[in-house]
Amino acid sequence: MSNTKEKLWTKDFIIVSIINLIVTLIFYLLMVTTSSFAVNEYHATASQAGLATGIYIVGVLIGRLFTGRVIGTVGVKKILILGLVAFICTTGLYYIYAGIIFLLISRLINGMTAGITSTATGTMVAQIVPMSRKGEGIGYFSMSATLGTAIGPFLGIFLTRFTSYNMIFFLCLILGAFALMIGSTLKQPAMKKITKAKQQSKQAFNIKNYIEPNAMGIAIVTFFMSFGYAALLAFLTFFAEERHLMTAASFFFLVYAIAILLTRPFSGRFMDTKGSNFVMIPCFILFAIGLFLVSVAHSGGLLLIAAAIVGVGYGNLQSGAQAIAIKLTSPERSGLATSTFFIALDAGLGFGPSILGAIQPAIGYGKLFIALSFITILSLALYIVLHGRKDKKLIRIQQYHKSLGHH
């Protein structure tokens, strides 16, 4: 019983969560401002603006893959501090106006540093949370990312209306410097010694060192379902300008966040007790409805109703898919399962805007969101084929293991 009283809210846990919040906030703040920055300052096309938005996440992906390989040997605190220093330096590159190609390279490198930093925070929190409170601790930690995904876009759209891009970049630098300052006070968590055999197997190229095969099905679903959210991040500002809905659009992601915060505690509990399908299937349908409502919104009220529905739908799909990836995997490979999930999510959010940006000029923003509503329904069909059919069997296995635990 004493295990349950192990301390969760330590100084290091709080600091790592704050750093994760800051990095995620900057990540999403820049996601919603970069496309308009590219168009207004560099006269970029819709496809180039989409690429400027999405290439950042391609960088995040590269950063994650690289960090996963070296973090065990270099040490998580060292990687975190190096990542934060590089993150601040590369954020400064936005001040250099040297053409669209330079902007794309800056975004790629800045994304790589964000990938290094967020992988380090995720690894560190897994090491400092006590085993008896692992699920609870990771749940609270992931809320810092949820808040970042909401406050970042809200601030980005709000600041774009009232201040210059240089002031937005300055805010990112100040937040990054604060994260570095508090990060330097962290203690290096105790590391498990890596045996020579394990070291050699890690150095030899093996796809299983990067990807968890059991999580691949849900990862494929995640890739396609993230396209709708990628479009909201990259193009909501343009869509809202076209429809004269900028005031409502600036609150879109705030309403989205409130909807997640209100529903996620219930959705997590339902996934554990009633199975994934009970949560995932309605959330796919809600996300599709939300995207459809965005497409037909000509009033601020309807756009914000759509934001709430998207929050309940996509917000819970994202956490649900991550939970499924972990549940399908043995505990010692849960880190790789999480990484596999994030690679698919990053790829969808990264490549989505440039693919959709190429289609948009031909069909317009309204029809683009209708198309994404259909893509979400197709993602639901894919979910049922790749995971949904096996869900009842997984619940039975889970219940059997629980009953064994009680005996």
Structure description:
Its main location: membrane. Keywords: Membrane, Transmembrane, Transmembrane helix, Transport. It comes from Neobacillus sedimentimangrovi. This protein has 407 residues and is an all-alpha fold. The chain is 83% helix and 0% strand.
Secondary structure blueprint with pairings:
Layout: H1 11-42, H2 46-74, H3 76-91, H4 100-128, H5 134-162, H6 165-183, H7 196-203, H8 216-243, H9 246-250, H10 252-274, H11 276-296, H12 300-327, H13 334-386, H14 391-406
Helix pairs in contact: 1-2, 1-4, 1-5, 1-6, 1-8, 2-4, 2-13, 3-4, 3-6, 5-10, 8-12, 8-13, 10-11, 10-12, 11-12, 11-13, 12-13
Q: What is the compact description of this entry?
A:
By secondary structure, the chain is mainly α. It contains 14 helices and no strands. The model is unreliable at 193-197 (pLDDT under 50).
Question: Strand content of the residues, in percent?
Answer: under 5%
What's the number of helices? Answer: 14
How would you characterize the largest beta sheet? none
Oligomer: single chain
Distance between the termini: 17 Å
**SSE string, helices as H and strands as E:** HHHHHHHHHHHHHH
Query: Percent helix among the residues?
Result: over 70%
Count of DSSP strands? 0
Structural class: mainly alpha
Shape: globular
Mean pLDDT score: 85
Instruction: List low-pLDDT spans.
Output: 193-197
Rg calc:
21 Å
Question: Which keywords apply here?
Answer:
14 helices
